[in-house]
Amino acid sequence: MATTALTLAGLFLSMLVVCEDVCCMYGYHRGLGYPWAWLDSYTTTDNVAAIDAIRSDPAALEKSVDWSKVVLDGLFWWHVALLVVVPAMQARRRSHLSARDRSARSRAARAFTAPSSVST
Predict the structure, then answer these.
(1) Which residue has the higher pLDDT, 108 or 22?
(2) Whose CA is closest to 42, among 66, 71, 11?
(3) Given a cut of 90, is residue 27 above it in pLDDT?
(4) Which of 15, 26, 36, 111 gives 69 a disulfide partner, CB atoms 3.0 to 4.6 angstroms apart?
(5) For residue 117, is pLDDT > 70?
């Protein structure tokens, strides 16, 4: 569950990364996503002034989703989530086991040092 939540969070937070390209002076490409831009916008114009106008308001461009890049980004963020979740779960298990081991040792020590009720 934690891995899925971290994967989705990474995927959606990656949309804060913007990749812009001006291609051949008359094409403009803008992508959102990291490491691969998967929410794309693309347009072509007749002059550089139109490209500058488009760059000033990129929200007006039509967006398309590249699903293969969504899958690649999801796999990337899933691996990142695993690198966080697995060590955290191992540390949690280790601390839980050591606490249980300490309580078992203290019970054993008390049983070993308890005075005997046998009288002579």
Answers:
(1) 22
(2) 66
(3) no
(4) 36
(5) no
Query: What three-state secondary structure class fits 28?
Result: strand
Percentage, residues of the chain above pLDDT 70 = 83
AA identity, residue 84: V
The span from the CA of 118 to the CA of 68, in Å, is 78
How many residues make up the chain in this entry? 120
Give the integer Cα–Cα distance in Å for 54 and 64. 17
Mean per-residue pLDDT for 75-94?
A: 91
Whose CA is closest to 36, among 58, 59, 66, 7?
A: 66
Residue 73: enclosing H or E segment and its boundaries? helix 67-113
Please state the three-class secondary structure of 32-66 as a single string.
ECCCCCCEEEEEECCCHHHHHHHHHCHHHCCEEEC
Rounded Cα distance, 5 and 112, in Å:
48
- Whether the pLDDT of residue 119 is over 60: the answer is no
Residue 8, SS3 per DSSP = helix
Residues with Cβ < 8 Å from 43, sequence gap 6 or more? 27, 28, 54, 61
